[in-house]
Amino acid sequence: MTADAQLHAEQTEFIAGVAGKLNDFLSEQQEIMATISPDVAPLMGSISNLVTGGKRLRALMCYWGWRGAGGDSGDAEIVTAGCALELFQAAALIHDDIIDRSDTRRGGPSVHRRFSQLHEMNGWALDNERFGHAAAILTGDLCLSFSEESFTQIGPRAAAGSQSRRIFNLMRAEVMAGQYLDILEEVAGPVRDRSGAVDRAKSIIRYKSAKYSTEHPLALGGALAGASPELLDGYSAFSLPLGEAFQLRDDVLGVFGDPETTGKPAGDDLREGKRTVLVGFAINQAPAAESAYIDRMLGNQALGEVEVSEIRQIIVECGALDATESLIAELSDKAFSALERLPLAELPLTALRQLAEAAVSRAA
Amino acid sequence: MTADAQLHAEQTEFIAGVAGKLNDFLSEQQEIMATISPDVAPLMGSISNLVTGGKRLRALMCYWGWRGAGGDSGDAEIVTAGCALELFQAAALIHDDIIDRSDTRRGGPSVHRRFSQLHEMNGWALDNERFGHAAAILTGDLCLSFSEESFTQIGPRAAAGSQSRRIFNLMRAEVMAGQYLDILEEVAGPVRDRSGAVDRAKSIIRYKSAKYSTEHPLALGGALAGASPELLDGYSAFSLPLGEAFQLRDDVLGVFGDPETTGKPAGDDLREGKRTVLVGFAINQAPAAESAYIDRMLGNQALGEVEVSEIRQIIVECGALDATESLIAELSDKAFSALERLPLAELPLTALRQLAEAAVSRAA
């Protein structure tokens, strides 16, 4: 088997392991739920549906962090850790979609929309949207609890006081804080110091995305395999700029992405009022009238194709898109050179390189 | 010291221990949060504020469950367990208040209202109510994570696979399922079989309240102290009917309670559309026209004093209030006789008796 085939086979086996473990875990939970009432089935269905898809970026970062630190390829603990990360991600997405009023997720209805539709289909009373939000809050809470339950099942290596438990706790707290900073900037950004917009947006992506999507999962895998503090520092030097570049790419796709590929309506980030680094550059670099136009349009739910394409044009012409692409390139360079300095075996090194390339050059 | 003074002193010491531990725990978390941004302080402030008050019913059930099973009075683990339960309760309240659109909590603004007010005070952009909801979803998620982190700090006795971990997991899943059944009944109740309304309402209070507020906390304390399966069964025979009576009392207060004492506007449960056992009895026992009137008014946010008092009158005249009070009395009797059969020392027995009396006869 070539090195590349070996990598592919190992990664496929891990992903299949995580999928199988998620399935077993959720089946067990479903048995408990069934004893309560058949009516709660849609909560479980929503969670199962959500953990079935996705790029499994976090689980894979965790896996290669583990392998890089000498963890064994056939280990059940790392599969359980991947399962916990995927459940946490599902919980975060459920609540995120409520917060961002996103009605679609991976091309299908988001969880709160699924519950609104259930309400409509059954001809239930009162407000279907409100019911959808309430049900999705509870589904997210349930999924958050499942994530934790799954993480604890790792056993002694994830026990109280362990390094991996500390990382998992910090990851949760930081992503929630980061998401708060994100929604705060949407409302406070317009009245705050404009020249600080890019720095604030950078801080937001660090906490809500980079630490959560790449840095902590990689460190978690490393810590579970007993990585040295030096190796964990090296992991961070690679994964933090990588995660930042990953989120900047996401921000670009949120404005310029093809809805067919991203599974989300074009310009959704603008309608939502997201004050990303891309938008921060535009607001600072565009002529006053155009900058004010963006400020006025951000967060306007009624934004149509015409306005979205006007804003796109401003972003391109003022050089904000270029500035963002330069930043992505700079952060990617930083990540890739840190990666090459890591004392890793060929297999995990190649795997992380491939993951990193996919993360920063993706189109969806 | 008399037995009563001893009980009081011990309980006071435990409550102070939980408060101190909560304070230490949240201070540590605040230090982490402060490294992210000073902007996230309101999330921590909301959580601190919420865990400062309250009846500490769950922590106390846990404590006496522990003492009844032979646990030591000066133990740090049970204080940590109480802390985890209080944090879980705070998280549940934060999300509950969003779901139920409750703008007040213990006489002050609920968490989503606090964030809406912060938005207004600062003259931020876009919608203050939406910001409040989003921020409160995140604050609840953070608090849910804290609860778990705190629970894990108990150590080996709460490790993966332990009886106490199983109880904690089940408690979380059941309360979320029960809350879903509650909001489902609000919307599906009007189109479902009317004769099943009381039974459905009974199932809801079992899961969303009785198991969560009394049965599981008591069992958790017992399990941490190594209680036998027989003792845990005996605990359930006492605590499940107690919790049901507790919630029925809550339902009565939700319609008939004095706002000065409950800290909530009169008739809020009706405005919210809660289909409680009390309402189920009324819908089945009232004359057709009055039953239809209640059906029509439930969930109407604009319900005024006049309508609330009309509904109250219907509930009283058709015998629904009496039926509910009889059920409370019946469940209380069941709980108290099960309590007297428990093989407990005098101190925990008296403590549980006092807690139970307070739970079913309270006015707030």
* CATH fourth-tier homologous superfamily of chain A: Farnesyl Diphosphate Synthase
Global geometry of chain A: globular
Q: What is the rounded Rg of chain A? A: 21 Å
- Assigned CATH class of chain A: Mainly Alpha
Helical proportion of chain A, percent range: over 70%
- The side-by-side strand order for the widest beta sheet of chain A comes to 1-2
Architecture per CATH nomenclature, i.e. the level-2 architecture of chain A:
Orthogonal Bundle
Mean pLDDT of chain A: 95
Give the largest interface pair and sizes. Answer: A-B, 64 and 63 residues
Number of helices of chain A: 16
Give the DSSP E fraction of chain A (strand runs of 2 or more residues).
under 5%
Structural class of the helix and strand makeup of chain A? mainly alpha
CATH topology of chain A: Farnesyl Diphosphate Synthase
Query: What multimeric state do the chains show?
Result: homodimer
Largest sheet composition of chain A: 2 strands, antiparallel
Order of helices and strands of chain A: HHHHEEHHHHHHHHHHHH
